[in-house]
Write a structure and sequence with these properties.
This protein is mainly alpha-helical. It has a single domain, classed as Orthogonal Bundle (Cytochrome Bc1 Complex, Chain D, domain 2), CATH 1.10.760. It is about 50% helix and about 0% strand. The protein is globular.
Length: about 120
Amino acid sequence: MRQMKGFLTKAAAVGMVLLGLAPGVLPAGDAADGKELYTALCTRCHGEKGRGDGPDGATLATKPRDFTDRARMQALSDQELTTVIKEGGPALHLSKDMPPWGIALQDQQIADLVAYVRSFSAS
């Protein structure tokens, strides 16, 4: 009986990972789809080229993140970027000016945004 319980626990864990339900498992993002979302939702603050120089960004107390800063972007995990997009800046003790998009966007859309944002600092 104990072996069966252990087997079922392991099988459930593997199933969760395969289905993308386990914590920390992020869907793969599509940068092309992310570009459309970025243009519609992010350029006003982060700028067209991701430098944090959008027209609304100039009015904020904290300058929006410069996604072309390779060192800074490499230091951030996809999970951290996902959290900030989904829950807003305060979720990671960042600017309150970064709004939460988790209500408006699905997880796949957020993953697409993460992929596109990463493209600004790619070599």
